[in-house]
Specification:
74% of the residues lie in helices and 1% in strands. The protein has 316 residues and is mainly α. The chain has a two-stranded antiparallel ribbon. The chain is globular. The protein has one domain: Farnesyl Diphosphate Synthase (Orthogonal Bundle), CATH 1.10.600.10. The longest helix has 28 residues.
Length: 316
């Protein structure tokens, strides 16, 4: 997005400053993640909403800081995710626990959560603090739920969507709402953008889960099929389960061999499960776009709508 390139560049610089730590190992572990880059989806959405809701298209200092805070929270969650899922790579580089060890990685994640909380408190807005704090609780809830249904063939689409909300959509929903709170808009507008972020987040997670099966490892920045290896049963697999008893047997044996993963991916690809999952993501994208189109269309809304629709087009 050309209109916010300056803000995104400054965000990247500020992130490095915000994770300053006296302990060099702790700093190195945290800094490694930000050096790897990332899509910066969450800050981009915050910047675009800020522009949409301000007549002068001004992105305030508070909104810039909120964008930085949400990116730190997101990054902290990735550190802990990688330990739980035992991922070797993230964004194409070795994960923190692989370079250091699990103990350092846990502490690095905790440090990032602590730093985000400190900067959050310094926004001096109690409603925003309450709103963003819920995200960290939801992350933990999501991880516990995912752990409880690992390799569980009885998982329903509804349970999958609920888990996806806690793990991904909550961050976007709450950060979109916080953007509006900082803008001093009313409760109805806050709720609109909460729902916008929720639908966007759910679509994003479903698309990510599809890409885990259809993408190449070099493009994903991590091994393809990681979800299957870790027992995270996602929408395409859930839609395939009832049609293929062999797949259920492989899940019951927790994909003992790499060949099982490859075979499972091929089974899924030979059904309409990926298209069905994409249809659900498309539905959530349309719901998100409807909120903007029905109430908030102006000259500044085009980029936000383009960004929203871009997420569904990540799949070829």
């Amino acid at each position: 997005m050309k209109s916010i390139q300056t803000e995104l560049k400054q965000l990247n610089k500020n992130l490095h400053k915000m994770i300053a730590a006296e302990n060099p190992i702790l700093y190195s572990a945290a800094e490694k993640l930000f050096s790897a880059g990332g899509k910066r989806i969450r800050p981009t959405i915050i910047f675009l909403i800020s522009k949409l809701m301000n007549k002068g298209q001004i992105i305030s200092t508070e909104h810039k800081r909120l964008a930085e805070i949400t990116e730190i929270i997101h990054t902290a969650s990735l550190v802990h995710d990688d330990i739980i899922d035992n991922c070797d790579k993230r964004r194409g580089i070795e994960t923190v626990h692989n370079v250091f060890n699990n103990k350092i990685a846990v502490l690095a994640g905790d440090f990032l959560f602590a730093q985000s909380s400190w900067y959050l408190a310094n926004l001096n807005n109690l409603d925003v603090v309450k709103n963003i704090s819920k995200i960290i609780t939801d992350f933990a809830e999501g991880e516990v739920r995912q752990g409880m249904i690992s390799f569980d063939c009885q998982i329903s689409i509804e349970e999958y969507i609920e888990k996806s909300f806690y793990k991904t959509a909550s961050l976007l929903a709450c950060s979109c709402k916080a953007t509006i709170i900082l803008n001093k808009n009313n409760k109805n507008t806050q709720n609109d953008f909460y729902l916008y972020g929720k639908h966007l987040g759910l679509a994003f997670q479903i698309i990510d889960d599809i890409l885990d099966l259809t993408g190449l490892s070099k493009d994903l920045g991590k091994p393809a099929g990681s979800d299957l290896i870790n027992g995270n049963l996602t929408a395409p697999l859930i839609f395939t389960l009832n049609k293929n008893p062999k797949l259920q047997k492989m899940i019951d044996k927790e994909f003992q061999f790499k060949e099982n993963i490859d075979e499972a991916v091929n089974i899924i690809k030979n059904t309409n499960a990926i298209q069905k999952a994409k249809d659900i993501a498309e539905e959530h994208i349309q719901l998100a776009m409807h909120i903007i189109k029905s109430k908030y269309t102006n000259t500044n809304s085009k980029e936000l709508l383009l960004m929203t629709y871009h997420l569904i087009n990540r799949i070829n």
